Amino acid sequence: MTELNRGRPLSELDAFIEKQFVKKDDALARTVQNARTEGFPEINVSPTEGKLLYLLAKMSGAKNMLEIGTLGGYSSIWLGRALPADGKLVTLEIDNDAAEFARANISNAGLADNIDVHVGNALDILPDMEKRGEGPFDLIFIDAEKEDYPEYLDLSLKLSRPGTLILSDNVIRNGSVTEEYPVKEGHRKLAEFNRRIADDPRLESLIVPLINREIIDGIGITIVK
Ligand code: SAH
Ligand code: DHB
Ligand code: MG
Predict the structure, then answer these.
(1) C-alpha angle with apex 133: 127 to 139, nearest 5 degrees?
(2) Cα separation of 27 and 2, whole Å?
């Protein structure tokens, strides 16, 4: 197990930080509870990562945001809370049941006018958005199928401008992305994604480790030059 000093699990440190820095929010709490009762997987970002998303979004002054992978809208609500009153977030979700569930949670958070849940495959929707001349977005959060992260990056760059902030979840996976020959295809593609955001001359990036439940995962932070 990953341990803190005196043998305490690292998750206790995250719980401590959460208690001190993450204010209670009924809509977010209900989103997590509803996911549990309705049988959706609990793979939303953690409360502390949500707070980090919120802070980065606010710092960047983002007014139009794109999210790839909505699930129940937990991270959408965090991002939505950072929007100005006239700001917009478009979030993409392939699963219709999840999208409907997310709409209910988003509405409960009072963000229905700011957040649009779009149902479909991001790999189809993103090229369509580009063709329609949508974007560029101020902030893009990538959090859908791990095997498609490199492709999401290519498509996101077409919807970006200099200064666009591209955030990406799950880029560490307890260190699996550092293995020379990762067993899982998803980990291989996440490692490829990390090399891309590290080395692409159009981008400046860092991956930042975060405690997530019992593991260390992390967030990619990228700015388009
Ligand atoms: N961002 C959410 C969690 C998303 S989980 C949060 O932190 O609260 C990943 C989601 O991406 C799942 O709901 C899955 O159905 C969706 N997804 C996977 N592949 C996709 C694709 N190609 N296009 C759109 N959504 C996709
Ligand atoms: C999974 C997906 C995620 O986006 C996440 O944050 C954690 C787990 C998953 O597919 O297992
Ligand atoms: Mg994730």
Answers:
(1) 75
(2) 31
Tell whether ligand 1 has an atom less than 6 A from the beta carbon of residue 114: no
Measured CA to CA in angstroms, residue 197 lies from 79, 121, 176, 203 at distances of 22, 23, 17, 6
Q: 92, 67 in Cβ contact below 8 A?
A: yes
pTM more than 0.85: yes
Atom 17, ligand 1: which residue's CA is nearest?
144
Kindly report which listed range (69-73, 81-85, 178-182) carries the lowest average pLDDT score. Answer: 178-182
Question: pLDDT band at residue 163, thresholds of 50, 70 and 90?
Answer: very high
Q: Is 67 in the pocket of ligand 2 (CB under 6 A)?
A: no
Among the atoms of ligand 1, which is closest to the Cα of residue 71? 13
Q: Which of 74, 90, 93 has most ligand 1 atoms within 8 Å of its beta carbon, as the pocket-test mutant?
A: 93
Dist CA 97 CA 174 (whole Å): 30
When the pLDDT of each residue in the chain is averaged and rounded to a whole number, the result is 97
In percent, the amount of the chain with pLDDT more than 90 equals 93
How many Cα neighbours within 13 Å face the side chain of 178?
9
- Which of 51, 95, 140 is the best mutation target for the ligand 1 pocket, counting ligand atoms within 8 Å of the beta carbon and taking the most? 95
Q: Is the pLDDT of residue 4 over 90?
A: no
pLDDT band at 1 (very low <50, low <70, confident <90, very high): low
CA 45 to centroid of ligand 3, rounded, Å: 6
The bridge status of strand 88-93 relative to strand 64-68 is: parallel
